[in-house]
């Protein structure tokens, strides 16, 4: 991290904290996600890093590199100064359909608020991650349109147990005061389907009338010029170097933690026993944002 100057905190989550840094030689700003070394560096973290490295698109946060400190794994990525989507929704109340038609989101894993978790993930069954992510994107779309989570009880929104039950039963509705087109309602109804086999897929979404409405030409199938340019300009670390750093990061830290800024009291379904049911899950009221 000698090449970077840490400026300030910009976010926090169940796994760590994110900080704004400046690269000393170029003056460029980057966001760095710090994850404590040791048991938190598992296959989920490795998969997230490798998936992020493989994403090359002008509208997706660009991966730069991973570094190792004595206490943390540091993931360096492009800095987007616009703030978090959820914060913008909170400030705006909700977005209209035109503003919601192009989604820029990072679906959650089974950590923190359960609002984005697909039923099959919640049930701890084997699942297709791409199909589970469709559900998470549907939650994001609903939040952008309505300004609230779809499966929270409006009378008791902090009750995680009720949220879990409503997810499993696919219990949601669109308030009367929100104007949502029939095409958008139909898309949500095809996303919020408990059975993954019957849920709409990404290729099908890309052909849905609501998705195609007012879609910029560069986002249509075949408009891949910007994507190709991003690939050509890529200077990511090699896969071998990244995997080596991740493997070394699995060694627990010996020094102090990063300012004691890690959050506790959130829900991590991966720590539950396989046969745990809803009544066995201990909930908290802490909100943990995605990094």
From TrEMBL:
GO CC field: cytoplasm; nucleus
Residue ranges of every copy of the Protein kinase domain listed in the record: 1-211
GO terms assigned for molecular function: ATP binding; protein serine/threonine kinase activity
Record keywords, A-Z: ATP-binding, Kinase, Nucleotide-binding, Phosphoprotein, Transferase
Domain of life, per lineage: Eukaryota
Keyword Hydrolase: no
Keyword Nucleotide-binding applies: yes
Gene3D superfamilies named among the record's database cross-references: Phosphorylase Kinase, domain 1, Transferase(Phosphotransferase) domain 1
Record protein name field: Serine/threonine-protein kinase SAPK2
């Amino acid at each position: 991290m000698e090449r970077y100057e840490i400026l300030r905190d910009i976010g926090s989550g169940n796994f760590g904290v994110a900080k704004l840094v400046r690269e000393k030689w170029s003056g460029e700003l980057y966001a760095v996600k710090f994850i404590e070394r040791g048991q938190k560096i598992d296959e989920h973290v490795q998969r997230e890093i490798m998936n992020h490295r493989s994403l090359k698109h002008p509208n997706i946060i660009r991966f730069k590199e991973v570094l190792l400190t004595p206490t943390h794994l540091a993931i360096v990525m492009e800095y987007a100064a616009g703030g978090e989507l959820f914060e913008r929704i909170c400030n705006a109340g909700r977005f209209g359909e035109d503003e919601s038609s192009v989604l820029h989101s990072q679906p959650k894993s089974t950590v923190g608020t359960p609002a984005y978790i697909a039923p099959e993930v919640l049930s701890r069954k084997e699942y297709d991650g791409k199909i589970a992510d469709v559900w998470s994107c549907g939650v994001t779309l609903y939040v952008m349109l309505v300004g609230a989570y779809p499966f929270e009880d409006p009378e008791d929104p902090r009750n995680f147990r009720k949220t879990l039950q409503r997810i499993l039963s696919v219990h949601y509705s669109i308030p009367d005061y929100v104007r949502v087109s029939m095409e958008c309602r139909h898309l949500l109804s095809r996303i919020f389907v408990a059975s993954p086999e019957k849920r709409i897929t990404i290729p099908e979404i890309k052909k849905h009338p609501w998705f195609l409405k007012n879609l910029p030409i560069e986002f249509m199938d075949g408009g891949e010029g910007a994507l190709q340019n991003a690939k050509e300009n890529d200077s990511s670390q090699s896969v071998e170097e990244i995997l080596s750093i991740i493997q070394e990061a699995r060694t627990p830290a010996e020094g102090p933690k990063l300012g004691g800024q890690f959050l506790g009291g959130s829900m991590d379904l991966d720590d539950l026993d396989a046969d745990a049911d809803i009544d066995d899950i201990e909930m908290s009221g802490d909100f943990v944002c995605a990094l």
